[in-house]
Inverse folding.
């Protein structure tokens, strides 16, 4: 079983739609959680950290469910510029720095 | 502020040749990471450094790969000899230290080096 699993998609949604991605992680000792986005042929860029109480950044909302070991990302009022691959990222060990990346969920927002 | 800088951006080489990839982390960041990304395997951590010292190189695929960080502002990843299966995008990322502080574990990526070995 992969450490971090995501639905690869693709998700094709119209502009203005709300779309949600889920991600599950296998190690209950995981400590830190992030969502990164990666545009085609570009580097991954940090979208947002995910906090235990859930957090929001504009149109983006991230939730963490430790009991079920899943993380979600909700995008409201999607824009064409949101088209990208969204990577779920987990840090497991308390002091270590390694991040484990999911394989990503591809989103295309259609005009 | 300048982000992570990588060079070259593209490298095409023949099998058996030596390849050297370069990275300059964000100033003030204590951690530097080398990743490889392929369609088949996704993003894989190869090695990471803390204060110029290699901490975990368990992801380095084999002895053909080596990495150094001679100072806080420069690191290299070398492949010798290169093989076609090494073709991938190689990313360098950096993060700051101070565990426990907000944002301490966030990593910032460079634009990558697209390596093609023929």
């Amino acid at each position: 079983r992969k450490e971090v699993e995501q639905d690869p998609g693709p998700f094709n949604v119209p502009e203005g739609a709300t779309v949600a991605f889920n991600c599950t992680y296998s190690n209950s000792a995981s400590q830190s959680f992030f969502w990164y986005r990666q545009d085609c042929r570009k580097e991954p860029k940090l979208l947002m950290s995910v906090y235990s109480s859930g957090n929001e950044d504009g149109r983006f909302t991230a939730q963490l469910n430790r009991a079920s070991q899943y993380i979600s990302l909700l995008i409201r009022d999607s824009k064409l510029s949101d088209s990208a691959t969204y990577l779920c990222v987990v840090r497991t060990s308390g002091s270590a720095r390694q991040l484990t990346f999911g394989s990503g969920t591809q989103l295309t927002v259609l005009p | 502020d300048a982000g992570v800088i990588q060079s070259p951006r593209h490298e095409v080489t023949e099998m058996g040749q030596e390849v050297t990839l370069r990275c300059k982390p964000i100033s003030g960041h204590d951690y530097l990471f080398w990743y490889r990304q392929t369609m088949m395997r996704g993003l894989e951590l190869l090695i990471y450094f803390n204060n110029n010292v290699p901490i975990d190189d368990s992801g380095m695929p084999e002895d053909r790969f080596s990495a150094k960080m001679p100072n806080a502002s420069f690191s290299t990843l070398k492949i010798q000899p290169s093989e076609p299966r090494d073709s991938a995008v190689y990313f360098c990322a950096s993060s700051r230290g101070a565990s426990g502080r907000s944002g301490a574990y966030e990593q910032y990526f460079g634009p990558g080096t697209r390596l093609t070995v023929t």
